[in-house]
Amino acid sequence: MECAIHQGSIKEGVPASAMMRPFQELENIDRSRPLDRCPALILNADYRPLSYFPLSIWPWQEAVKAIFRKSVTVISEYDRVVRSPGWEMRLPSVLALKEYVPMARKPAFTRFNVFLRDQWNCQYCGDGFKTHELTFDHVIPRSRGGRTTWENIVTACQCCNTRKGSRMPHEVEMYPLREPRVPSIHMLQDHGRKFPPNFLHESWGDFLYWDTELED
Ligand SMILES: [Zn+2]
After folding, report:
1. Which of 22, 63, 121, 169, by CA, is between 20 and 30 Å from 9?
2. How many Å apart are CA 204 and CA 56, to the nearest integer?
3. How far does Cα 73 stand from its chain's mean position?
4. Collapsed DSSP state (helix, strand, coil) of residue 98
């Protein structure tokens, strides 16, 4: 069985019963879900997502290999089945690692995480924007010795960024709405729940959202 996986010989099979009864197949979208829409949500050994940003998901091939390596526990499955001769399995929708992976304590200083901290709101006019409409502003301009750090970088729209230019906040009366700080992982996770990824399977809900509701 393991050989079949490593040789990549899993094929999308159409069960004979489904061919004979096409209407039954239509009744269940999950069964005919395209394979590229069957990623598995990966949880750490404590059943929290391994990562929120980006959300820890593996394509189905990776997920199946991990099952054969016995490095994960299957928590939930799609109705979608993959087959190779003499073998079939339902694709996993949620997997938990058997060994705990220690999590980073500090979030990475990345473009995405700055937007996430500021929740895609320009920190000068307060309006919300899409990623491609946003840029960054050095609160204390670089030309005045300002550094590129969590404490000196804020999300800004193009308009405000141009208006402020390379001047000090007091020179243009433009102050960030919130004092820029290093966010905690918890804060980013909290903000991230408001901006879910494009694809979410219903089986992921318990692991992504329940804990917030319980904390509230
Ligand atoms: Zn603005």
Report:
1. 22
2. 11
3. 20
4. coil
CA 202 – ligand 1 centroid, Å: 36
- The pTM is what? 0.59
Paired tokens of 101: 């992976």
Cα 81 to ligand 1 centre (Å) = 49
What is the CA(134)–ligand 1 centre distance, in A? 9
pLDDT in tens, 160-180: 999 999 999 999 999 999 999
Write out pLDDT tens, residues 119-139: 999 999 999 998 889 999 999
Ordered by where they begin, the domains of the chain are 2-103 (no CATH), 111-172 (1.10.30.50)
Tokens of 35: 């394979």
Compute, in angstroms, the gap from residue 129 CA to the centroid of ligand 1.
Answer: 9
**Ligand 1 center from residue 156 Cα (angstroms):** 5
Within 13 Å, how many C-alpha atoms sit on residue 120's CB side? 10
Residue pointed to by tokens 């969590």: 150
Q: How far is the CA of 147 from the centre of ligand 1 (A)?
A: 21
**Main-chain phi, psi angles of 37, to 5 degrees:** -105, 25
Separation of CA 149 and ligand 1 centre (Å): 20
CA distance 147 to 179: 15
How far is the CA of 165 from the CAs of 75, 76, 111, 144, in angstroms?
52, 52, 20, 12
